[in-house]
Amino acid sequence: MTKTREDLTISEALRDPLIAMVLRADGVKLEDFKQLLETAARKREPRSNSVGNMIGALANRANLPAMPCFG
């Protein structure tokens, strides 16, 4: 299975032409936007559980099997 990422990195966001156009239209300096993104990234809590662990925890609360059955 190949893992894909849909979110932009900070570097990618700063180089994105559409984001640059919106920033210019809103009168936001690129450096200010960069600082905002970096501050938000520092404050963001790291994920403590994987998706599988979260599904298992929810299944336990609902008394369901951890792996859904499709068929």
What's the helical proportion of residues? 55-70%
Q: Please provide the count of β strands.
A: 0
Largest sheet: none
Tell me the span between the first and last alpha carbons.
21 Å
Pattern of helices and strands: HHHH
Number of helices: 4
- Quote the beta fraction: under 5%
Overall 3D form:
elongated
What structural category arises from helix and sheet content?
A: mainly alpha
Low-confidence stretches: none
Radius of gyration computed on alpha carbons: 19 Å
Keywords: Plasmid
In short:
By secondary structure, the protein is mostly helical. It has helices at 10-15, 17-26, 30-43, 51-61.
Please tell me about this protein's structure.
The chain is mainly α and 71 residues long. It is elongated and about 55 Å long. Helices cover 58% and strands 0% of the residues. The model has no long low-confidence stretch (mean pLDDT 79). The longest helix has 14 residues.
